[in-house]
Amino acid sequence: MAEPKKIEKVLSHRATRAFLRYITRVNHNGYTFLEEVFQNYDEPRLGFGKRVKYALPFFIADFLRRQAGVSREALRDEVFRHTARARGLINTAKAIGHFGLTKPQTFYAPLLVVWNFTQACNLHCLHCYQDARRALLDELTLKEKLRMLDTFKENYVPLQAFSGGEPMLSPDFWEVVERAGAMKFNISIATNGSLLTKEAAKRMRDINVRYVEVSLDSVHPEKHDRFRGASGLWERAVAGIKAALAQRWRGLKVGIASTITRLNFEELEDLIRFAEDLGVDSFFAFNFIPTGRASEIAHLDITPQMRQEMLEILYAHLTRGKINIVSSAPQLGRLCLASGLSGPISTGHYGAGPGINARVLAKYIGGCGAGRVYMALQPNGAVTPCVFMPIEVGNLRHQSLEKLWHNSLVLKILRDRDNRYGHCRICAYKYHCGGCRAKAWARFGDLRAPDPGCIYNLPAWQDIRHGGKYKETYDETLTARAAN
């Protein structure tokens, strides 16, 4: 296995960046040279001219393959000719060629777009970041929605998540998702589960949906229903989970998502056990962000000490390995790294892995990915850095994704982990975590403010309790300034 530091050194070299820029330029046929390499790798009927043409990239691919201990067949079928993974690799290669190897890595285009497909919803959840009720008057037309998929494909976006509102309420939902499946995006759907019937779950798998996630905020039906705004919703959500689980044998992965507040903090263990007993693949613990309708219940946010306890519970279950544990609280990666070399390492929203390679990967893709790894697309085409961060940085109805992604001042601030206040600026794990920028924005109206949900930023939490305005007077920040 190649040492990660050697790989980092090679990827950081100017010659490597120039080479990556060359092989990821789009040619007159509308493809990059790297795409041609992927399609022709291990092709037995390749002519002499093409063998010469692709000799160097084939040599590099085989060298890296041997270092990783992967067979030619696996590299060909599971990476190079797996469309979504190939797009991700091309996106990454373009990113290193354009931005260089950065900590954390800024990608050439988002690896993941979370699409709030409609503002319409049939529930009235207390914590809704969208304040979803009914469809917006200016939501994208079907033609515009299909054009969005073309835009994502052209920019090598591999992952597409449909959310809402309730995405299944949109009359365009099935046609757009089917087109996305045909275009070989890696598709996930976040739903409240009320419309997730056996027929709907089967249809999802038929059109290449890979993952469906159902929101469940309590193991107690009456508690979930109060939180969601109507009776009978717990039973419908669980029935939706079971309907999706019936398609697992066909490759549909299933997850349960819970937003952790003071209302359900004490039953976090029970929620995870319930998910395990149902047999789902993943449990996703969402960081509560007081935005949208959730701003009305900001007092239900858990304290930094409670969040630390939440992270320790999540890490314990991650270590057990019985269920995949994911959280939008970026501090989970920090806790994993601090727990030692032997345990699993969370790489942000993208799962976890063991060993030194996962530790290195977490440095580049871990932590808050807003405006760097992923973005949110709103129902009317507006782009925000994150579904929890209502800052419009542009609109894809009339703007180029590439120009928007590369030129937005807001996104540039989010990518700069050194431009922070409080402990987030000097933290040893700032490249792996970075703090939740949505929480900093919601609480202080400043993207650079410390994440008040972190145990290392207790003074910021105290500021919230005494008026809500962030005061940059902390010893950590003064120390950081003196060091610079």
Molecular structure report:
By secondary structure, the chain is of the alpha/beta class. The protein has helices spanning 4-12, 14-23, 33-40, 48-53, 55-68, 72-80, 83-99, 142-154, 173-182, 198-206, 221-228, 233-245, 268-278, 304-320, 331-338, 355-365, 401-407, 409-415, 423-426, 437-444, 458-465, 475-483; strands at 112-116, 159-163, 186-191, 209-215, 253-260, 282-287, 324-327, 345-346, 352-353, 374-377, 382-384, 394-395. The strands form 2 sheets. Strands 7-6-5-4-3-2-1-10-11-12 form a 10-stranded mixed beta sheet, covered by helices on one side. It has a two-stranded antiparallel ribbon with strand order 8-9. The model is unreliable at 473-484 (pLDDT under 50).
